[in-house]
Design a protein that fits this description.
The radius of gyration is 20 Å and the shape is globular. Mean pLDDT is 82; it is low at 4-24. It is an alpha+beta fold. The protein has one domain. A hairpin with a 2-residue loop joins strand 12 and strand 13 (203-210). Helices cover 19% and strands 34% of the residues.
Length: 230
Amino acid sequence: MKPLRHVRAAVVLCGILVMGAGLAAQQSVFLGVVREDGLMIPIAIHDGREWWNAWPFSHESDQTVVTLPVPASLAQVPTPWLPPGVRLPTAWTMYPRRGRPRPLRLGSLARPEGFSLMAFIGIRTSLPRAEVADSAYEVGVAISGPGTLTSVDSLDTASAEYRRLMTAVLRGNALREPDFEVLAVLKWRGPSLWVVRFRAEDGFSYGLLEPSAADLIELPMKGLWELRPR
């Protein structure tokens, strides 16, 4: 029989491990783009150490995405689609292009209906059906975890903040290829970041830019689908 002090030590260690895992989950920041058809696409996750985007998202003819089976629930999302040890939360806050932030809950997974320029598996949301259309137009950006978003469309066009942003965007688009559109500004424990849509002739992608950098650095993401070996 183990001495009582050893049992207590084991219990304390288990408690520390559980608390550590819970703290790591609380520190994770999740970002997703919400489309007009009610689907959300996870586009960036910070696991407390670095940014990830391993969610399947590629050009329309990419068979590695087109042939993927749709998971039956959030709990059954394959682990390679997310950072190690991280699961998607169900409760989010959506920051629409215009209007106040609103609670958003995730539901089942689904592919987009009809033609889609990009191949991906999205997540149905609690966006009211009366507001859901058939378009892939982004109606907002959602976040779960410590941080807030500001939609660019919600900024006062006469404000100094808006003028600074637009000046930086024009400068950035002149420096970068492909060009981009800022969807929202992320305020979190790190430097402020832009949530952006990169435009290209054969489609588009989502990512993060750091506006404080002189040349608008795109934050590297671990696990990007299009960079995986085929």
